[in-house]
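Two proteins, back to back. First:
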Amino acid sequence: MTQPDLRVVAGAQTIVLRPSATRESSKELVDGTLVVHVPMRHPQVGDRHKVALLDLKADVAHGRVGRFEQLVRRAWLKVLKLDRRPRASKAQQLELTVGGLIDRLQPDVVYAQDPAALSVATRAADRAKLQKRALKVVHQDAGAPRQQSATRTDERRLLIGPVNSAGQAWLWAKALEQVLPTEALSTAGAKYEFAAHRTATAEQYKADLRWQYDLAAYVLSEVSHVLFEAGRPLFGQLPGQLWTADVPTLDKAGIKHGLIFHGSEIRDPARHRELFAHSPFQDPADEFTQRLQAANDALRRHLTSYEGPVFVTTPDLLDFVDHGTWLPLTVDVHALASDQPVLERERPVVLHAPSSGALKGSAHVDPVLTELDALGLITYQRVEGVKHAELAELVKAADIVVDQLALGSYGVLACEAMAAGRVTVGHVADRVRAQLPTELPIAEATPGDLRDVIERLVTERETARKLADSGSAYVRDLHDGRSAVAALLPFLGGR
């Protein structure tokens, strides 16, 4: 029996839309062409009405029906609208499943393989005319174009995405340059302007099928290893969809895959408040905490059956992932190096620049540092949401950087502050410090003693400067990219 394939030519990309026999969505590369297995839509209430309405609109727009027939068909539409039975013929299911995909791809040509597919393509061409777009429909017998790249590469290539959180995927890719080609994919937009090899807007990631299928075709032909960030899929994301949506496609192509978690997506709020005294999740009824808990629970349900390696970027996250591997954060130690002296001003500049005030304990930091500023002891600099290049300059010009007082670990900002030779302050719990290979040169502070810590650092300046110098050495040793490469090598198969 002929498969109702539709071969869609959209720009330079050729895509075959093929109904999935298993109702599972997946993609594969066949003779250089991306084949998308589309799950057939289950019959739903109102399906027959939707298809009939689409037909009528197209016929009216093209002047194919007279006024009397319009009235009859509109009356029939009212009858169909009252039909609450989830019924649809196979042809209607095909139309509702694949027709919308063709509309979103906005192709130039559609090659239809059998009568059912030809019907779907013809209706899509009618809708294109209504939008003043040209869509050519050709029966498969007329011959369909074939792409020339018939086989996938045997070379190793890693893709990390789709988040590029704090520019980490880019920095890991740079660190891996001597091991294998690596690319960073960012779909987070340009808010902080982190560098990336491949970028897309949030809208493209969520709704642009052409962009999604172009990326899928590239990955299936050129990439050997994938690292999903934050539990999100690569090839676009429907509401609630996680990385597991892409796993069947990668497995079928023989592409190895793993996970990288950066923080809140895997940090279980309930367990965190049990382990960390100053947890920002102390109130289970808090709306923010409830939202994070629900998302965390949903992700964990999928994680329990996942068999790939799982990496975490901060040591505290090892408490939340069974058999996780620490993938140390990486910073550009050369770009962050600062020749500005530390603690030589009468009023030292104290910087606090949280990525999320609610998570970093800013409600405890702001009152203390604002008061110390008013007393003339320090100059408090508070920023949030600035471009990364601007933030890096602020860090290099500060004397003291206060990271966070709630999570119990240290992140990218603390690493950048240490790399710049700044005195770095934060709450890093004893259980986290115990997991580190060397002593962590971050001045310990909690919501209860932050004021005392800052006053001591400003008063005992020589001791504070030695702490800043130790921070530079610590980052050069652990966070310059070499430790990250060592952590990834087993997944990547060595050199």
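And the second protein:
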Amino acid sequence: MGLWQWVLDNWALVWTYLYVGIDVVLRLISLVVVPRNRRPGSALAWLLAIMVLPIVGFPLFLLLGRSQLPKRRLAKQKAVNRLLRVRAHEIPDSELDEDAPSWLQSAVQLNRELGAFPLTGKNSAELEIDYESSIARMAEDIRTARESVHVLFYIMGLDEVTEDFFEALAERADAGVTVRVLYDHWGAVSHRAVYRAMRQKLDAHGIQHAPMMPIRLFRDGAFQRPDLRNHRKMVIVDGEIGWMGSQNLIAAHYDKPANIRRGLHWQETMARFRGPIVSELNLLFASDWYYESDEMLDEQTLVRPSPDTSGTYECQLVPSGPGFVAENNLLLFNQLFYSATRRIVAVSPYFVPDESMLSALITAARRGVEVELFVSEIGDQFLVFHAQRSYYSTLLDAGVKIWLYRAPTILHAKHVTIDDSVSVIGSSNMDMRSFLLQMECSLMVGGTDFMEKMREVEDTYRSRSRQLTREEWESRPRTMQVIDNLCRLASSVV
């Protein structure tokens, strides 16, 4: 009783010693725990945050410091990877064109080792950069479905732009076609009204649907950080027609009043494929479906000989995400950047590279490769927008041309072209979130005909952009420089 009374009488002193003790213990623990299997830049950023304010920084590290999937979900990923590798082992890579550069074969081998998918030939592809036209064309394809429709988007909502898309799904479901829909939990639920309308529509027609990566902190056998997301965008019809790219299934202003007031809207690039590559997209969808529903779809219904093999493009699917051992998308980009001999054009709305990617681009520019980077003039995410601006000086010094897509449009497209040889299109940004925390889908495409289509898209974007000059950049306010650099430091905390 005397000890308790002493504590009550000297509570300020007790709390001071207790706070100092916890402060010291957390600092010491962080020195051991934080650097483990982590990039030096990320480790230093976390350690700085913890050392400045351990009581806040260490709990944040526990919440957001691990990019691994929970135990049971990781076991599912490993099971799917094994199945994909068994299937890939039985399918030889398609032969590259005779005029393909020698380094492209090594890129194909790298991708197969990382994601298991083989290179497929005899594919055809079209590009669509008009926002509402791509949604209308996807709906048109869905109405041709005889057996199955598989839909996966990071953000989905039922509004005036997407209404016909959901009506097409409902029509096919009512006709007996199997329709499966996946949407990222946070990406969709954060748009509440259109999310609720979508779910009601799907339920009313008996359409199977599930949220991806539901935000439940303790799920699948272990703690799961809430910002691990599924960022893929795909539509597959009968295993014969496949859509993928950067676009979400929502109005171009994302149904946000603030965006509407500012006139803000998103610019995207989507690709429509026919040929053997569609089966690979179907397999990737099936892996995500298995994660969320525990239903393993029959491979024979997913992978079938394509009825259309009239195309001339070689395509290879490269999935990535926290369930893979390596950052598949980052390794692919770096491999291509170091292989380029003449030209690199990169389009990314969020450009926050790690040290290896920045070095690859700067090295390419300094050895005489023409490097162009397309980003938006304005941003929709404060931290990422200012973090990416912190890299502009280094890039300009190396000779990289930076094109700013004019406001009030957000250039959300994500694609890369290398020389006249290969293109990559998909959902992956060039930032640490896409490399480490998000499930992404990238597609490498070979063929000069497809490259010509990509060049047309790049020319269109160039006509809507202005080039950032060294003089303009050096004259920006000093306060902006400070904000950019601080955001760059914060962006390393992943």
